[in-house]
Amino acid sequence: MEMPLMPAFYDVVWSIAVLLVLPLTVVALMRWRSHDRPTTAAVLWVLVILLLPGLGAAVYLAVSSRPAR
Known about the structure:
- The chain has 3 helices and no strands.
- It has helices spanning 9-34, 39-51, 55-64.
- Helix 1 (9-34) runs antiparallel to helix 2, helix 1 packs parallel to helix 3 (55-64) and helix 2 crosses helix 3.
- The radius of gyration is 17 Å and the shape is elongated.
- The mean pLDDT is 87.
């Protein structure tokens, strides 16, 4: 029996996922904008961040936070 005022479990899970992925993407894009990279690398990174929601932003933040060699 479904309760009309209680959201389904998957609605709650997707809402939490969006609330986690959206700020992560915004932070990654803000950090991307502050770095000075060649044009090709910059375009590729923004595509990765936007086309792979959550994962692309997490990879970018992990890679960009490492010190340069």
